[in-house]
Amino acid sequence: MIREDLQDLLSRPLRFARVVPGGIPRSTSTSRENQVASKPAADIIESMGGAANIVGLTHCATRLRFQLKDASGIDQKAVEAIPVVLGGVAQTGDRYQVVIGGAVETVYNDIMALPALKKMHSGDSHSGDAADIKAAERAKGPRGKFAGLDTFFEILSDSFRPILGALLGASLFITFMALMATLGVIPAWNAPGVTLDPSWQFVNLMWQGVFVFLPLMVAYNASKRLGADPWVGFAIMAVVMLPGFTALGQTDGAETVFGGKASVVQIFGLPLTVTDYSSQVFPPLLMAVVLGLLTKYLKKIIPSSVQLIFVPFLSMLIMIPLTAFLIGPMGVYGGAALGNFLKSINDFSPFIFAVVIPLAYPFMVPLGLHWPLNAIMLLNIQSLGFDFIQGPMGAWNFACFGATAGVLFLSIREKDRQMKQTATGALAAGLLGGISEPSLYGIHLRFKRIYPRMLVGCLVGGVIIGLGGGVKTSAFVFTSLLTIPAFDNIPLYAGAVAAAFFTAMILVILSGYQTPEQKAEVAAQVAADEAAASEKAADSAHVAAPVAAAAMAGAGAGAGTATAVATVLATVGSPVAGIVIPLSDVPDPVFSKGIVGLGVGVDPTEDTVYAPGAGKVVVAQATGHAFGLLLDNGVELLIHVGIDTVNLAGKGFTVKVAAGDRVEAGTPLVTFDRKVIEEAGYSLVTPVLVTNPKKFGSVDQAAFGQVSVGSPLITVAAK
Questions:
Q1: Residue 361 and residue 502 in one domain
Q2: Residue 400 falls in the annotated catalytic set
Q3: Helix (H, G, I), strand (E, B), or coil: what is residue 156?
Q4: Of the residues 14, 48, 51, 60, which is catalytic?
Q5: Domain count of the fold of the chain
Q6: What residues does the PTS EIIB type-1 domain cover (predicted)?
Q7: Per-residue pLDDT reduced to its tens digit, 291-322
């Protein structure tokens, strides 16, 4: 059937394409290693320009993160046409993100298992992990106007990204404990002085392990991201978390400070601040920054032959005291000061955060600005015992999910199968996991009408929380349906997020999310799908008829004649008068090599292109340079008027039909001005191609020399 990405294929110069069995070509790179592969992993790699264009690849909870040699040729629409892809996000510095959703790890593993990737990264020039590769690429030079800020948030992202799964799992344990306390099964599990039954204590330990040792996880990730040995960073942070280190603050002569949360003891005459570093995130981040700089310096001055020994040793020798005496306390006090400042704002008026946070988050997430807030949430829980940001954040999340639900409703009503699939996955990831990226990148940023409606939902949810006096939680959780019991005022929070959800959903349903042009594209695609389904049902009849005729002819004319009759399925007439040239002589390698489809070229002698048979117009480019037809006999036909004529932007073309139109043989499709095209330096040779050749036994040239409109041009034979 006609593929939904035909629109993308025809809307730009056809430089990179491959034949997908049974359909119109899909955009890819020049690499032919995975040309016939149908797996999403292979399609994604080809859409990135092939394995040779990939410098590094990592993934987060929902996205594949590519570092490319050259990202200028990536077509975002073509990337998003791949079934498992929810969205594509171009970034500075030849970086590109592909949004997958919850299945990202599976797709990532499939990509890394591709032979092309293994071959590409097996040599010395590609050795090392993704962080090393990306670091080398960044060292080549500036990456954009805001490269420094972009790198800062990327470091924060890479420091937390690998542990998001553990945080999500721990948040569900916390929610379960909160629910049990709400139902009266156990006492308030997080209240001071409360002792739980050993069985429930064990359940409580299941989440505490993640948050108590969070500094070690962050230290490892941040150190690795900044080019230092991650295990050295881990070891440095581990020192200040040892029970023996904590015991130093309990020795005689220790002075209690920081409201009793820390103590100061003299070590070699220097004051050492001893505090509980559990769940802290700012100290390991600061430590990793200094360690990264120190590591680079040591590698410059120490001979490479002994770096393995002395770089780790000197790093630990310098960084352990520096972290214990200076960096650690700076991180604790600085983070506490920031948390207390925000708390004072929230104490003054919870309404401020309740409204500002939901309205700001839709713009912060795409820019990566939400990562510092995540760190502050963790800090609030550690220093204050609760957090006041996650409640308002839930209003944003559920408004986001509500908008997605509205899109899902409309996609079902409009029979838009691709959007239905995208919205279903995004909604599941949001409601069950609290993850907004699949909705945000896969849908909302692609359709500008959604954001204003979603912001109304954010505002409604935030106002309800603000009027109710705010919502707090004593644990870091992902705001989903499953974590509602983790908030201290469940009725208020549940009512607010429900209002945000249904407000956004209803507004999207009532107003729609597509422009008129986008609606027309979807309608054309639905019509093409329905026509293809009808053609599929009739395929057996189309094939059976010539076979039966062949059998009858064979009785009187012999087996050879019967075979010839049996294989003839359809004949495509010429859409334009002109001179036929073999496909191999078409002056464009993508066409001449048969990558797009099989057929011939016609050098026009007249200025009107006609439909060669009865069928439906699937794509009619506004520029007039290309048309996709689904003929009644099952042939998918591409008529490309001239070579690279898309660059004329419609100049010299007068389009006669629109997508979705029914045409008969001889219906005018477009007229063109030969003089305009030739003066612009473009060839008029018009490829006429069958783009679903795998469906047939063969596609052959049926004419030579001069042809008139409707004269037999291509013969299509049954399998």
A1: yes
A2: no
A3: helix
A4: 60
A5: 4
A6: 38-121
A7: 999 999 999 999 888 888 899 999 999 999 99
